[in-house]
């Protein structure tokens, strides 16, 4: 059974309207005049973070990836609950708590509770977080809603976190310290686009965060909306740090498009919509299904994998 097969079986149980059919980034419940947005993400050692990673960075990332889901709903964070599996490494735990304190202070989100368990001396660390947020307005962005003719946009740059992972794992090297530091920061300490999400949420037809890879996440919008997302590789916004290390050819752009962990916002909107922040248009919604790629005006084939998928 694959992860998708398992989720399909869970969908039969998640019949409450707030679950959105398990086809979205978060659950949405009525909350007075507004909406309560809830999300839950997990990090597994040697899958989502390297064993050699700074525990303070791991704590930051655990908070940030959950808040990124709130950002995609235009929600303001209200609090978090954490699940933590301990080993016998007290120094690791102490450093993790330091990073957690930095994250909740930076994002102004309180830790409200959670649970701890023992993973044993040699167990892999499994970390989990549930985040709650408040979204105002009647329409909370989902993955469905894109229509043919709508434009596709992203915030920020794509590929920096993947590039940082290559450096952290010793697969690539940056010649200068500033370039290396910028890419490592993108990988270790992502910045959820909370302000951007709130500014955009009432204007977009779909919105989600880029976590598993731009192409894979675009395919999820395509599937939910029943359209084709045609993405122009030449329009992908790459940082100067990324280009310094990996260039900007087709291979580099494909790596950026599939690498994941960007935690930028991917969205669609009518081309007539005036959007209040700087975005990069990377393509168009077309009739059809799935994702397609063009470069220099010509159709190019999709890579073997569109992004990160659990087995």
Note down, in words, how this protein is organized.
By secondary structure, this protein is of the alpha+beta class. 32% of the residues lie in helices and 25% in strands. It contains 9 helices and 12 strands. It has a 7-stranded mixed beta sheet. It has a 5-stranded mixed beta sheet with strand order 1-2-5-3-4, covered by helices on one side. Strand 11 (291-295) and strand 12 (298-300) form a beta hairpin. Helix 4 (160-168) packs across helix 5 (177-188). It starts with a helix and ends in an 11-residue tail after the last strand. The relative contact order is 0.16.
Brief rundown of the structure:
This protein has 311 residues and is of the alpha+beta class. Helices cover 32% and strands 25% of the residues.
What does the secondary structure layout of this molecule look like, with pairings?
Elements: H1 3-11, E1 27-31, E2 34-44, H2 55-71, E3 76-86, H3 90-106, E4 111-118, E5 126-135, E6 151-154, H4 160-168, H5 177-188, H6 194-200, E7 206-209, H7 214-225, E8 228-232, H8 240-246, H9 250-259, E9 265-269, E10 280-286, E11 291-295, E12 298-300
Parallel strand pairs: 3-4, 8-11
Antiparallel strand pairs: 1-2, 2-5, 3-5, 6-9, 6-10, 7-9, 8-10, 11-12
Helix pairs in contact: 2-3, 2-6, 4-5, 5-8
